[in-house]
């Protein structure tokens, strides 16, 4: 789970983890796909039942294991399939963003966005924007720091 | 006050009102008191109260759930915040404990004391509270130490829950005040003012030293999970060796778990063998929770914890 290259500008391509909610954002991603919208290939999408399923631990772990950015996508506030899940996501997102910034992790590396099932174009746009921002930042942490932390590596 | 405490506890035990009582007793090291459990009247004489009782005893009341009877506990105003949170988080029932409130005039940070005295703490034989000063006996000598110099950091921002119904009080339990120049979140604000790269460098230096002994977790009243995430085998979140990247993860996860729970008791910093300024990390979360959600842990019984609650008009920078 380490990024491809260490030096920005030298062909650095970030690895970005996307959590997409099953009901809105994953459908939005699907729509972007069937609409044949062009997007950078840096994102790995994990489907979750609700954006509130994304525990802050997931984000912190991803960043500490060497991923360059995490993007959490959920339904627009008020549109949650479970009525109120994304309101909790919003509160956690607010807190986590500030905490990460406090320990020196650029806030661009963890982003939350609302993407509905009909917003295929917004999905593509978001992915492009976030990839661009993170590419400009460079790798999250040196490769050497995360190598050897996977059980298979020992 | 110590006599009054012993008298109250003796009565509680004699009446059978509590199975045992959690308080402080003198440790083998004269410069500090340690938690002690008294279940028999003959042991009541062990109980002490003074300026060396900085520990937060509230973690121990969790055991009361396993008893048929009740547990008595000595609570400083600041420790009461932890008990309030435990009740709110349904970890303990109010009627399982007999809370004895004790007025506190500030507690000694033995690390600061050692630094100021410049001698080994083993030579300190007693510390007495005399108003604005502590009388510290070192060997034959008695020295006066100004309170501001040796108080625990938390004492400078002493806060008590409003209207906690103690079963017994040993005096008026009111927040202790000292004239402090620093603001409530001074240490956090100082770090916030640094450029982001310097903050990263600072925290990396701190986390690098962590030996992952888990002392902060063990001492934390809010870490009451029966099975800790970090101990899970499948999936395994952390490997055993204390690598920097995983240390960072450990502390950040602990910090988010403490959001809306941390009551600033300072136990994490006190027990840390590597002197990592964990307090600043958790204070940051406390500050954000207060600013964003207007919530302060352990201060009121009837408010809803911030992360199991939401407002329709919460800030939304996420678009």
The percent range for strand residues of chain B is: 5-15%
Number of structural units classed as domains of chain A: 1
Strand and helix order of chain B: HEEEEHEHEEEHEHHHHHH
Radius of gyration of chain A: 15 Å
Would you give the CATH topology of the largest domain in chain B? Fumarate Reductase Iron-sulfur Protein, Chain B, domain 2
Spatial shape of chain B: globular
Average pLDDT of chain A, rounded to a whole number, is: 89
- Which fold name corresponds to the CATH topology of chain A? Rossmann fold
Oligomer state equals heterodimer
- Could you give the count of β-strands of chain B? 9
Entry summary:
The complex is a heterodimer of chains A (154) and B (319). With 154 residues, chain A is an alpha/beta fold. Chain A is built from five helices and four strands; from the N terminus they run βαβαβαβαα.
Could you outline the blueprint of secondary structure elements for this entry?
The complex is a heterodimer of chains A (154) and B (319).
Chain A: E1 16-21, H1 25-34, E2 43-48, H2 56-64, E3 69-74, H3 85-102, E4 110-114, H4 120-137, H5 143-146
Parallel strand pairs in A: 1-2, 1-3, 3-4
Helix pairs in contact in A: 1-4
Chain B: H1 2-15, E1 20-26, E2 33-38, E3 47-48, E4 71-75, H2 77-88, E5 97-101, H3 110-117, E6 124-130, E7 133-138, E8 141-146, H4 147-150, E9 168-169, H5 186-192, H6 196-209, H7 215-219, H8 244-257, H9 267-271, H10 278-293
Parallel strand pairs in B: 1-4, 4-5, 5-9
Antiparallel strand pairs in B: 1-2, 1-3, 6-7, 7-8
3D structure, described in words:
The complex is a heterodimer of chains A (154) and B (319). Chain A is built from five helices and four strands, in the order E-H-E-H-E-H-E-H-H. Chain A is an alpha/beta fold. Chain A has one domain: Rossmann fold. In chain A, strands 2-1-3-4 form a four-stranded parallel sheet, with helices on both faces. The N terminus of chain A is likely disordered. By secondary structure, chain B is of the alpha/beta class. Chain B folds into two domains: 129 residues, no CATH class; 132 residues, Fumarate Reductase Iron-sulfur Protein, Chain B, domain 2 (Orthogonal Bundle). Chain B has ten helices and nine strands. In chain B, the strands form two sheets. In chain B, strands 1, 2, 3, 4, 5 and 9 form a six-stranded mixed sheet that branches. In chain B, a hairpin with a 2-residue loop joins strand 6 and strand 7. In chain B, helix 6 packs across helix 8 and helix 8 packs across helix 10. At the A-B interface, helix 2, helix 3 and strand 4 of A face helix 5, helix 6, helix 8 and helix 10 of B.
